[in-house]
Amino acid sequence: MDIISNILELFGAAYLGDFSKYMFQSGAYSSVFYVMLFLPLIVSFVYYIVLDHILLANLRKWMLIGVVTGAVATVTGIIIAHQNIQGYTFSQNILEAGVGSADFISFGFIVFVYCALLYFVFSLILKSFSSRCRNIPF
Length: 138
Fold this sequence. Notes:
The protein is an all-alpha fold. The chain has helices spanning 3-8, 18-26, 28-51, 59-91, 101-126. It is built from 5 helices and no strands. The chain is elongated, with a radius of gyration of 17 Å.
């Protein structure tokens, strides 16, 4: 196992059996990881550097943007996981994959939490470059 799969499986605490095995063998962990890493970075950059508007200097709007970012990353991660697992099982002629919707929901929750944490960290880093949104999140 590589470091990206260990991070997304919470270092073995969230190993999901066949789901994790097929995700690793299809190489989907890296795609989801890059989406999960770069989406909050881009959104934070746009929020603090590009827009930097007084109307956005509100904790509720910052949280709403963070939740929407996490939701987009989660849906994107689930779509990537579903397509890669489906493609891998089809190419290997596996008729019964043993992957249920609960596995995708659990994986999506992990992606959402990581994305929210990354959004918070990137916000703490980039808020010092902002003039109007300097006090958001704190």
